[in-house]
């Protein structure tokens, strides 16, 4: 068991892995924030999807009027779903990339561009900013993940 712990310690000492952990944490916190923003909009717009969520607004027909969709809530939810579709692959591919031995400067460039693009995407979704802002920020982050995946495949499979 002590050998396993030594390996974990070596991993934590790896600068690229620490950079990955830093930026993975940032995008995960950003994604968690989207849940809070969704809850905020649900409460302030009184737009709920579950009957039990309307209990504090009355019973029966009075509470049913709060079982509805709201465009602002749906916009935040779509942004959150887009995070799930893009950040989850980044977490897996980014980890493999970090373990594939890239140069620190190259890894930082990948991680920073991805994180910046996802933050920009969130602002573009929530404000909303005119297109192509949201589309470009999505494409940049997606391209970064593809770039890391290519490096992993090239390193591991000698493509």
UniProtKB/TrEMBL annotation:
E.C. number(s) listed in UniProt: 2.5.1.18
Gene3D superfamilies the record matches: Membrane associated eicosanoid/glutathione metabolism-like domain (1.20.120.550)
Family indicated by similarity: Belongs to the MAPEG family.
Localization, UniProt: Endoplasmic reticulum membrane; Mitochondrion outer membrane
Catalyzed chemical reaction(s): RX + glutathione = an S-substituted glutathione + a halide anion + H(+)
Lipid bilayer topology: Multi-pass membrane protein
Listed InterPro entries: MAPEG-like_dom_sf, Membr-assoc_MAPEG, MGST1-like
Protein name, UniProt field: Microsomal glutathione S-transferase 1
Example GO molecular function: glutathione transferase activity
Protein keywords: Acetylation, Endoplasmic reticulum, Membrane, Mitochondrion, Mitochondrion outer membrane, Transferase, Transmembrane, Transmembrane helix
Superkingdom per UniProt: Eukaryota
Gene source species: Phaetusa simplex (large-billed tern)
């Amino acid at each position: 068991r002590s050998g396993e712990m030594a390996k974990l310690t070596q991993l934590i000492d790896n600068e690229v892995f620490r950079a990955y952990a830093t930026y993975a944490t940032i995008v995960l916190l950003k994604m968690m924030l989207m849940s809070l923003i969704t809850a905020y909009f649900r409460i302030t717009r009184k737009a709920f999807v579950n009957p039990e969520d309307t209990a504090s607004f009355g019973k029966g027909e009075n509470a049913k009027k709060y079982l509805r969709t709201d465009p602002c809530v749906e916009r935040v939810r779509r942004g959150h779903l887009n995070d799930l579709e893009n950040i989850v692959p980044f977490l897996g591919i980014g980890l493999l990339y970090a373990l594939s031995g890239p140069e620190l400067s190259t890894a930082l460039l990948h991680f920073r561009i991805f994180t910046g693009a996802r933050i920009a995407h969130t602002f573009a979704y929530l404000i909303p900013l005119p297109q192509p802002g949201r589309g470009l920020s999505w494409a940049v982050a997606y391209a970064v993940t593809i770039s890391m995946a290519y490096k992993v495949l090239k390193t591991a499979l000698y493509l």
